[in-house]
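thread: overnight batch results

M.L. [08:02]
morning all. the overnight job finished for the chain we discussed friday. pasting input first so we're all looking at the same thing
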Amino acid sequence: MPPTLKPIIDVVIPAFNEARSIDQVILAIPNEWVREVVVANNNSSDTTSQVARKAGAIVVDEPRQGYGFACLKGIDYLRANPPDIVVFLDADFSDFPEQLPEVIAPILAGTHDFVIGSRALGEREEGSMTPQQIFGNALATWLIQRFHGVKFTDLGPFRAIRWETLEALAMQDTTYGWTVEMQLKALKKNVRVTEVPVNYRRRIGHSKVSGTLKGTVLAGYKILKWVFLYR
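M.L. [08:03]
and the structure it wrote out:
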C-alpha cells in the first residue's frame, strides 16, 4: 500500500446475544477511519442482528457457536473485497472503539504488522475482568515468554492486523483459543508484533465465557492447548 493512499480498514465484531450493547459499539467506532463494520452474528437468540443493521453494520450469520467461528465468518465475508487492515473488537462495549486510531498507529507507521490492544498496559475499570481472566492472561503470557522468549502482557480481543498477514496465519481455532492462536502463529512466522495500551470497562450484560464455570474451564483448556502445541 503506497504511503500516500489512505488505508482501507474494516472492523469485525463477533457477537452472541449482544442486542443491549452492539449499537453502542458500532456508533463509537470512528467512522472516518473505517470502510465497513462487519458483525458476525453467532447464533444469537435476541435481536443482535437487527440492532446491528440499524446502527449501520453489515451482518453475517454464523450458526455454529464459537468465538473463532464468528471471527472466521467475518474474515470470509471480507475476502470478496479485502481491506488493508482488519480490526477485531468485542460486542459487549467493554473495549473503547474510539481508541482504534491508537491501535492501528504502529501499522500505519510501517513498523509493525499486528497490534494487540493490551488491557494490562491501559486503564482497567474495577471489576471489568474477573479474577480467572486476570489469572488466565497472566499464566498464558508467562508461558509464551518462557517457551518463546517474547513478552506479551495480554491476549486482548481489541487488535489490528494487516490483511496479508492475517491470511498468512491461516487461522483455524473455532472457539476460545482464537486470540492466543493468532499471537503464537505470528511469533512462529516472525510477524512484527507489538502491544499498545487500551482501556477496558465493565461489559454490558453477562459474559458467556468468564461468567460461567464451563466457559472458564474450556477457555483455559484451549489457551493452554495452543501454548503447548506451539512450544
